[in-house]
Design a protein that fits this description.
The complex is a heterodimer of chains A (about 800) and B (about 270).
Chain A (H helix, E strand, L loop, with lengths): L17 H5 L15 E7 L5 E7 L1 H4 L4 E6 H6 L31 E2 L5 E7 L2 H9 L2 E6 L25 E8 L1 H9 L3 E9 L11 E7 L4 E6 L4 H11 L8 E4 L15 H13 L3 E4 L2 H7 L6 E9 L5 E13 L26 E10 L13 H18 L4 H8 L6 E2 L5 E2 L4 H11 L5 H10 L3 E10 L7 H6 L8 E7 L5 E5 L8 H13 L6 E4 L17 H28 L6 E4 L2 E4 L5 E3 H10 L13 E6 L8 E11 L4 E12 L6 H21 L30 E5 L16 H18 L10 H18 L1
Helix pairs in contact in A: 9-10, 9-18, 14-15, 15-16, 17-18
Chain B lengths: L4 E3 L4 H10 L3 E4 L5 H6 L7 E4 L9 E4 L2 E5 L4 H6 L1 H6 L1 H8 L4 H6 L2 H7 L6 H8 L2 E4 L3 E3 H4 E3 L2 E2 L7 E7 L3 E8 L6 E10 L2 E7 L7 E2 L1 H9 L24 H19 L2
Parallel strand pairs in B: 1-3, 2-3
Antiparallel strand pairs in B: 4-5, 5-10, 6-7, 6-10, 8-9, 11-12, 12-13, 13-14
The chains are: A alpha+beta (about 800), B alpha+beta (about 270).
Chain lengths: ~800, ~270
């Protein structure tokens, strides 16, 4: 009877939250209007690097509507702490990373265009802007360095006194001697220089914050666009020092996308919270798109030189990597972890590589801070691995698929030389399925047909792996993380049998209100509409770590699973008393508690009601109520992997690329809702294609942002993308109870090398940078034609 | 946005009078360039003079041997007008390629040419078709109207009322879009009319829209695609920026000219 009311794991049920979103009933931070709220506008640095000789706010303060103007001096006077980076990295020489001071409002120096100089709070936003224009700042403009590759040059301007040579850290992972030895045995050494282009995250909802102070309770409330409200509260309390945790409530209501950029604790929400008490009014700030380009943490921005050692049979022997990672002007909240433990640990890819060594120099430049962006380190690793593997195959005259197959890891668990212990996977299975779906065998005929109509056609593979389910707390602690990365859940069964789940995860587009409810529905045998998911409010929900790194299925749902175990165990005790049977004879299935071997039973709701009525069991032995919490700490990362195949046609007349086919076969372990997973894959591929073909943040030589709007920063559009062919293979994840691996970042990780491998195949040169814009491809085609003509 | 006064006159004379009397006036037509500019505080007009309530400025009609399109005619109206599609199908196609649906439903012909963005589409059509710009004061040949980047022959107190297009025997337009903004990086309009062949290029010239006389001469000799092979275009006069070098744009102009010819001969 009950099977039909349940929404099981594996069902493509429509998203519960979408009714709210598509009927305009979502409640975003900017939708909130607090009584008496004033509006904040940040005066930002127009120059990339300068000492502030003087800052005169007197004329501005007299402007109409101005409630208050605050500067770095006010921050200092109040003892407000700097923004922090929460992951300690040690350099090769054993010294801790050099963290330049990062005040929420500049204290005498600005270090990038968009850096925060002062905040003006006024009755209206227009008044705040007018007053900001009346602030007189005398900048002693200094030379700037924006280019990653120039940051460590001897003559480069220095950003932070504590970081000589603009170096935040020089870090390494792996065994250098073993890698050298592997190269000594190599028949072929494949070199590769590449750039991983800087990206702007551009979630559809810009960042926003409202700070409010209640003098009666001496307590603050912050509404903000956060992927992890508890972490925001922790940092603002323990490090910035705005208020003790119990006097600071952080609410992240509906949030319109984050892609990592809303993990971090920024200057704006810090200042709005602090300022609310200073001016005695709620203070609201909403970023416009121009501010987002300037001040949201960017992603990627690596320069890498790598070498792959291969023997005569096409077996990889060793991999040597040297990367310079641009951190921007300051170390953002998790910035240091991205080009280190989320990057170098994935350099083994899907391959059995005996020796790997990676050196990373993290550098400061006069640019916006760089931190996690969809994939965070893993796209950079995958782009490098899948490009160099492809080039190796081509160098050896081998088919790319065959070369990969020859080097696949085939037995599990597998310990890589770079920390990670892969627990499960079947890389050949996803490769085979992807090649079949892409009709790989038929490609030569399609290439010939394209050539006949003057088009250059190419095919590219990407066999990616990522580490998700972030992360085992002790493990990340040993690597420098300032926090544990477990997740929490509380399952509240109400007397009438419906359920509220309080999760420490945060949904900002992922569909948790549906997938988490599916888990509860299937487990308790109740309809999905009798389950509510509560998240994003530190006053409602127990401490939790939030959503990023494809962790909310593998870690967040595992916490719910654990709490459901406890709910079931307690309900069984109560059911045993109600049914006058021994606890060991009670079975729970399809929403009913039954006495084994009899037809006697109770519906879940009957037991729930009785748990609260508490008439039929001894409360000296069993507490009334039915509410259980759990904290789940994963025992390992999870390792989603798969194979994406991209096929392109380039028009040599214009340099335009058309993606004519894109196949994605992914192993995400157990899939809760295939429709939502497909959506995640589609969105990820779109962003990956964006990186490969369209998107790049450009600063000029003076550190001015050239791509400051959608007039110059190219976002992927529907017409840039084909209709994706997606498929799944499944190896269950052994390290969490649901067997989930995670799916949120796969597309953004896998797509860039698939696209570039296809383009390099089409054009017959390995030297194609991202983004491969029409102008760049046309230039490459012209240059190759000139070389070919000269040779004739 | 800075504060400004707002006027919505109901006659051309009243609008012109406002342009003469108020401080720092700015004419508002469809607002697709002006409103984003205001929102970003990149302009600070004293008074916006909105033309929306002036009757008769949106008409699309056959007039004599030509086609007259009112200054306030929306791009979407031009793109879908049976009159335009029959008389100058290339012009209807051009209008349908401007921006996105939201822009096409608000943006106007008059607003576009008065703004004379060097990457806008309409200036190429006006120039290649040999259009006449009807203003509140006079009639101007398109050749005399577009004077430079974002500059026209319009006086401070002069409004575009309509554009009269002679009907070409054949015409075609092709453009290569800027990947980010979708404005033209190279747009070429080719028309064969009573005055001969006219080829106008938008999106590429350092001085804005221009006539490519070498291509005109080659096509006048023989109106076919092959005539465009090896026609010179000096890259020194072509824009160069983040999205494409002058060499690339120069090349795109040649490619788009071929596509425009294919369209014209269709």
């Amino acid at each position: 009877m009950t099977a039909s009311i349940v929404t099981p794991i594996g069902a493509s049920v429509r998203r519960k939250e979408d009714h709210r979103f598509i009927t305009g009933k979502g409640r975003y931070t900017d939708d909130m209007a607090r009584p008496g709220q004033a509006h904040a506008y940040f005066l930002r640095s127009p120059v990339a690097h300068a000492n502030i000789r003087s800052l005169d706010t007197s004329a501005a303060a007299a402007m109409p509507g101005v409630v208050g103007i605050l500067t770095g001096a006010d921050l200092a006077a109040d003892g407000v702490g700097d923004l922090i980076c929460g992951w300690m990295i040690h350099s090769v020489d054993g010294t801790p990373m050099r963290m330049g001071s990062h005040p929420a409002l500049a204290k005498g120096k600005v270090r990038y265009v968009g850096d925060h100089v002062a905040v003006v709070i006024a009755e209206t936003l227009n008044q705040a802007k007018d007053a900001a224009a009346a602030i007189v700042v005398d900048y002693d403009v200094l030379p700037a360095v924006a280019e990653t590759g120039r940051a460590r040059a001897a003559d480069a301007p220095q950003l932070h006194e504590v970081a000589p040579g603009n170096t935040a850290f020089s870090w390494e992972l792996g065994d250098a001697a073993a890698t050298d030895a592997a190269f000594a045995q190599a028949a072929h050494v494949i070199p590769l220089d590449l750039v991983n282009n800087r990206l702007a995250p551009n979630p559809i909802e810009p960042r926003a914050a409202i700070g409010e102070y209640d003098s009666g309770d001496d307590a603050f409330t912050l509404w903000t666009t956060s992927q992890n409200p508890h972490l925001a509260r922790l940092v603002l309390s323990a490090f910035v020092g705005l208020a003790p945790e119990h006097k600071l409530r952080v609410i992240a209501p509906d949030v319109g996308g984050g892609f990592g950029s809303k993990i971090f604790i920024y200057a704006e929400e810090t200042v709005c919270t602090w300022a609310a008490k200073k001016v005695g009014r709620p203070v609201k700030w909403t970023s416009d798109r121009s501010e987002a380009f300037l001040s949201d943490a960017h992603g990627r921005d690596h320069i890498t030189r790598a070498e792959l050692a291969v023997n005569g049979e096409g077996k990889i022997l060793g991999f040597r990597v040297k990367t310079t990672a641009n951190m921007g002007a300051y170390l953002s909240t998790f910035a240091s972890a991205i080009p280190t433990y989320l990057y170098a640990t994935l350099l083994s890819g899907q391959y059995d590589i005996p020796a790997i060594h990676c050196h990373v120099d993290a550098v400061y430049t006069n640019t916006a801070p760089v931190d996690a962006y969809r994939g965070a380190g893993r796209p950079e690793a995958t782009f490098l691995v899948e490009r160099i593997v492809e080039i190796a195959a081509r160098t050896l005259g081998m088919d790319g698929a065959e070369f990969r197959r020859r080097n696949f890891i085939t037995s599990f668990p597998h310990q890589t030389p770079v920390i990670m212990a892969y627990d499960a996977g079947d890389y050949a299975a996803s490769l085979d399925k992807a090649l079949a779906m892409a009709d790989y065998a038929g490609f030569p005929a399609r290439k010939a047909a394209a050539a006949a109509k003057g088009k250059l056609r190419g095919i590219g593979l990407s066999n990616y792996i990522e580490a998700c389910g972030i992360a085992p707390s002790a493990a990340v602690g040993s690597l420098g993380a300032g926090v544990g990365l477990w997740e929490s859940a509380e399952v509240r069964v109400n007397p009438t049998g419906n359920v509220e789940v309080l999760t420490g995860s945060h949904s900002h587009g992922q569909g948790h209100e549906t997938t988490f409810a599916q888990l509860v529905s299937s487990r308790l045998g109740i309809p999905i509409d009798q389950v509510s998911i509560v998240h994003g409010d530190t006053d409602k929900v127990q401490f939790g770590m939030g959503t990023y790194g494809s962790r909310s299925g593998a870690v967040g749902m595992s916490a719910i699973f654990k709490a459901l175990d406890k709910v079931e165990a307690k309900a069984k005790k109560i059911a045993a008393h109600m049914l006058e049977a021994s606890e060991g004879d009670i079975e729970f299935k399809d929403g009913r508690f039954t006495v084994a071997g009899t037809d006697r039973g109770l519906a879940f709701a009957e037991v729930a009601l009785n748990a609260y009525v508490a008439h039929k069991f001894p409360t000296s032995e069993i507490e009334p109520g039915l509410k259980e919490g759990a904290f789940y700490d994963p025992t390992n990362f999870t390792f989603p992997a798969g194979c994406h195949v991209c096929e392109v046609e380039v028009d040599p007349d214009t340099g335009e690329t058309q993606i004519v086919q894109f196949v994605a076969v992914d192993d995400f372990g157990v899939v809760i809702n295939p429709m939502i997973v497909e959506g995640q894959v589609h969105g990820g591929i779109a962003q990956g294609v964006g990186q490969a073909l369209l998107e790049a943040v450009h600063y000029d030589g003076d550190g001015q942002l050239v791509t400051g709007s959608f007039m110059d920063y190219t976002m992927p559009r529907a017409e840039n993308l084909p209709s994706f062919k997606v498929g799944l293979t499944e190896t269950r994840c052994p390290s969490n109870p649901l067997g989930i691996k995670g799916c949120g970042e796969a597309g953004a990780i896998a797509a860039p090398p698939a696209v570039i491998n296809a383009l390099t195949d089409a054009l017959g040169t390995e030297d194609i940078p991202m983004p491969a814009t029409p102008a760049r491809l046309w230039q490459i085609i012209q240059a190759r034609r000139a070389v070919a003509q000269a040779a004739e | 946005m800075y504060a400004f006064d707002y006027e919505r006159p109901s006659a051309v004379d009243a609008a012109v009078a406002l342009l003469r009397s108020v401080e720092e006036p700015k004419v508002l037509a469809g607002g697709q360039t002006l409103l984003p500019t205001l929102k970003q505080r990149l302009a600070q007009p004293g008074t916006l003079v909105d033309l929306a309530r002036i009757p008769g400025l949106s008409a699309i009609e056959r007039r004599g041997e030509g086609l007259s399109i009112g200054a306030m005619a929306r791009h979407a109206a031009v793109a879908t007008s049976p009159l335009v599609r029959e008389a100058i199908p290339a012009l209807a196609e051009l209008a349908g390629m401007i921006g996105d649906p939201a822009v096409r439903n608000r943006g106007t012909l008059g607003g576009s040419i008065a703004n004379n963005d060097p990457t806008a589409d309409y200036p190429a059509a006006c120039l290649a078709l040999g259009a006449t710009i009807i203003t509140s004061a006079r009639q101007l040949a398109a050749d005399d109207f577009f004077t430079g980047l974002f500059e026209t022959a319009l006086a401070e107190d002069e409004l575009v009322l309509a554009v009269e297009f002679p009907l070409p025997a054949r015409a075609g337009y092709a453009k290569f879009r800027n990947p980010a903004s979708r404005y033209a990086m190279a747009g070429v309009f080719i028309a064969q009319g009573a005055d001969g062949i006219r080829v106008a290029v938008t999106g590429a010239g350092q001085g804005g829209v221009f006539r490519w006389t070498a291509a005109e001469e080659a096509l006048a000799a023989d109106f076919r695609v092959e005539s465009l092979a090896d026609i010179a275009l000096d890259a020194d006069d072509i824009m160069s920026d983040l999205h494409g070098s002058a060499d690339y744009r120069t090349h795109l102009v040649k490619i788009m000219a071929k596509h425009a010819m294919v369209a014209a001969l269709r």
